[in-house]
Write a structure and sequence with these properties.
By secondary structure, the chain is mainly α. It has one domain (3-80). It contains two helices and two strands. The protein has helices at residues 3-16, 63-80, and strands at 51-53, 60-62. Strands 1-2 form a two-stranded antiparallel ribbon. The protein is elongated and about 45 Å long. The N and C termini lie far apart (32 Å). The model has no long low-confidence stretch (mean pLDDT 94).
C-alpha cells in the first residue's frame, strides 16, 4: 500500500468516526524548530541528533517529542487560519 492509499483510508476512517484530519506540509521543519521560542536550528537536520538545546532560549528538546508538539501546534494554527 502506498502513502496516498494510506492517507485515503485514514481520511475515510477519521470521517467515519466523526474525527477531523489535519495535515501539515511535508517539509515543515518540525524537529528543527524550538517549541519554546520558535527559533529554527538548522544544525538539527542531521537525523543522528536525537536531542538538542536551543541556542536562543536554552530549552532542552528530545527530537521526536519536540517535533510532535510543533506538528500539533502548526496543524491547529492552520485550522484556525493563523499559520
Amino acid at each position: 500500500v502506498g502513502w496516498s492509499e494510506f492517507f485515503r483510508q485514514l481520511a475515510y476512517k477519521t470521517e467515519l468516526h466523526g474525527g477531523e484530519l489535519l495535515e501539515v506540509e511535508t517539509f515543515y521543519p518540525s524537529s528543527q524548530t524550538c517549541f519554546a521560542c520558535g527559533c529554527q536550528n538548522k544544525l538539527v537536520k542531521d537525523l543522528n541528533v536525537r536531542d538538542w538545546v536551543c541556542p536562543v532560549c536554552g530549552e532542552y528538546h528530545d527530537r521526536d517529542h519536540n517535533a510532535a508538539r510543533n506538528i500539533l501546534r502548526h496543524a491547529l494554527a492552520s485550522k484556525a487560519g493563523t499559520a
